Amino acid sequence: MATRSRVAPVRAGDVLLLVGTTKGAFVLHANRTRTRWTVGAPAFRGFSVYAMAYDDRGGRQRLWAATRSEHWGAVLCSSDDFGATWTEPEASTLKFPAGSGLSLRGIWQIALGPRTEPDVLYCGVEPAALFESRDGGATWAPVRGLLEHPHRERWQPGGGGLCLHTIIADPERPERMVIAISTGGVYRTDDGGRSWQARNRGVRAQFLPEKYPEFGQCVHKVVRDPSQPGRLYLQNHWGLYRSDDWGDSWHDMANHVPSDFGFAMAAHPRAKGTVYIVPLESDMFRCVPEAKLRVYRTRDGGASWEPLSRGLPQKGAYETVLRDGMTTDALDPAGVYFGTRSGKLYGSRNEGRSWQLIADGLPPIVCVKAAVVGGAAESRVPAAKKARAAKTASTKRAAARGKAPQRARRAPRRS
User: Fold this and answer.
1) What is the pLDDT of the chain when averaged over all its residues?
2) pLDDT by residue (tens digit) across 342-353?
3) How far is it, in rounded angstroms, from Cα 218 to Cα 238?
4) Fewer CB near the terminus (10 Å): N or C of the chain?
5) Which domains can be identified in the chain, with CATH numbers?
């Protein structure tokens, strides 16, 4: 079955924002200037959408959305026309084995396999498990090594349920993957999923009698530093941590932030040591501290943090950003985006120096993902460098001829 909605034309080089809410999915797009955004009509009205993804491997232009209904269950849907039409299977293609005693409650994460294997996809689900597809999402199977892990019986659900919400593959070693479970902690496989080991050394479980157990931490989010092999960052239920050895050990990096409690975390696509977070006051009052909406950024791997607030409300902003509610795009300068539970979507097209309100009045936002259609568009910084280099060369040539260079005519500024 397929559903149809109104979608404005999407062109190569456009930036996509995939926004999942508790009442449907929205697809937004803008050109590379990222100044004006087109907001598509909501798909899956009335369904919660906690996970979305864009897959451009193998010549595809496919959107994925994980829908959930209390009546119809959790279903993975796809679109090959940027949301104009969606496939909606009548029954979920993700199923636990008969006799496992488990049934699918929700899909919390959709992750792509390597580009060398364009038909490989992963889903993190509730109750905590990892599913794999090797045929482009047509069929799915649970990863048995994690499904049958001896710790499973002792994992406990967090406030959002017992969910596997983070999937991080090692781009250099395809057999290595890190996942995070609330509240199970971080686990890693080094043998393609056959076996998994807890990787939580140094991460605090504030709510347990034993503060540093082998597993059982309530990890809210883990991201990978694309510019530093082996480096991961972790936002915990109380605690900010960094690992430089793929999770073998974790070290506190909550240096002068107003709170080390929060959910959202996003890494810069290129700049080493650069990560964004949105701290919340506490687990009892899950709103930004002092009712000031501020994104905090580190550019030195957590040694120091700076608040980014230009364009964001600094009074009466009782906002919350959830674990998958923040993302970055691949342009240069990078775009940073986040959505709030009050339905506001903010974006920065200059790596957080200033912010704009992209959309307001949406249902509570639980997921924000960004992608560039056709791959990362040409960087504006290198383009500027090319222009300066061409101007310098022109000046030198003119000087050699004994002439002053003509002043270039300024191109009209595009809005």
Assistant:
1) 90
2) 999 999 999 999
3) 9
4) C
5) 2-378 (2.130.10.10)
